[in-house]
Amino acid sequence: LDLPGFGQSSKPLTARYSLDDQVERVQEIMSAMGVGQAFVVGNSMGGNIALWLARQYPDLVRAVCVIAPATSPRLVPVSLH
């Protein structure tokens, strides 16, 4: 998945790129594809998005694997224990 602002995707100036906005995009894509539940893997900012997806939509995520997630209290203001 190549979210707006990452990889080879465009980064429109009018789009929003917050953690919540990116998680909503992932959830919408999962819904459009008919994915009811998934194992989610992410690295760097994708790891942060994967963790936040699991927090916001726990019924969608069976498990999360993150590689060097870009987490910080500024980006994720809650404990994910």
What does this structure look like?
The chain is α+β, with helices and mostly antiparallel strands. Helix content is 32%, strand content 16%. The protein has a two-stranded parallel sheet with strand order 1-2. α2 (45-56) links the parallel β1 and β2 (61-67). α1 packs across α2. The longest helix is centred in the N-terminal third of the chain and has 14 residues, at 19-32. The radius of gyration is 12 Å and the shape is globular.
Give the number of DSSP strands: 2
- Spans with pLDDT under 50 lasting ≥5 residues? none
The assembly state of the depicted protein chains is single chain
Q: Calculate the mean pLDDT score and round it.
A: 88
Radius of gyration, in angstroms, nearest whole number:
12 Å
Secondary structure class reads alpha+beta
Our measurement of the CA-to-CA distance between the termini, rounded to an integer number of angstroms, reads 26 Å
Q: Give the strand content.
A: 15-25%
Order of helices and strands: HEHE
- Basic shape: globular
| Major beta sheet, strand line-up | 1-2
Give the helix proportion (percent range): 25-40%
Largest sheet: 2 strands, parallel
Total helix count?
Answer: 2
